[in-house]
Structure formats: C-alpha cells, structure tokens
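Entry 14. Ran structure prediction on the chain below.
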Amino acid sequence: MRKDDILILTGEKDACPSDKFSRRKFFGTAAVAAAGVALAPGLIGQEKAQSEKPPAAPPPPVKTNIDEVRAIPRVAASLPGRYPGKVVRVKTGANPVGQKIDGARVAREVERGMAALTGEKDMGKAWRQFVGPEDVVGIKVNTSGGAIL
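Output, structure tokens:
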C-alpha cells in the first residue's frame, strides 16, 4: 500500500507518524519487556543462591601405593633399567630392494647397536643383560608397513 492510498482510506497523511509507535515497534518492545520480566526473577534468584551457597568441600586425598613402591629395594633389573635415557641408533645404509629386506644386514646392525649400548662384544652376554633363558619374550608386529614388514 502506498502513502497516497493510506491518505484516501484513513484521511491521515501518514498512518504511522514517526513520533508514534507503529504496531511492529509496539510488539517488539512488548516482547523484550516480557522476556525481561520473565528472566529477571530467575537471574536475581541465582545471584542470591550463589552468594548463600556454602563453598564446595575439597576432594578427599587420593590414595596411592607410592610409599610401598619406594620401600622396595632397587636391583639391577629395576626400571628404568641399566641404561636410562641412552639411545643407540643404527642404520643399514640401504633401502629395501624390490620390497625385500636384507636380514643379514639387519642382524649385523642390531649386533652393532647392542654392542654400542652394553659395551659387550659377545652378543649372548649383551642380550642376557636384558633377558634370560627363563624369560618369555613377546614380539609385537607393526603391520602398518604393509607387505614390506
């Protein structure tokens, strides 16, 4: 509807003069006021409830067996082991050819790494520092390498 049509129908120059509320402004203001009235008691009540609430009790102490563990005497096989923090890196110097790994080359490098770590030339003595004949050794296979592994 155009302003000229409003003038003809109502006899007024503008059905919604700027100094008065329009219906849209009235309902918008009424909705905001209603929301404020509805929420205000809850918000005020929450502030009051929070100020009156006693502080939370501290959590109970965590029970551990750390004192028992500290009482156990350390032996040569105790963690972190004989070589804490020592890392030996070995490389075969060759990539797998045709998706095949040279087992002899890998064995030589493992022996070289064990000798560097333990200081032993005899591989039996070097390995016995970690495992013995009575130990059961598990091997975890990493299959993320696909057919290469």
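Residues 101-130 form one domain. Will compare against last week's run tomorrow.
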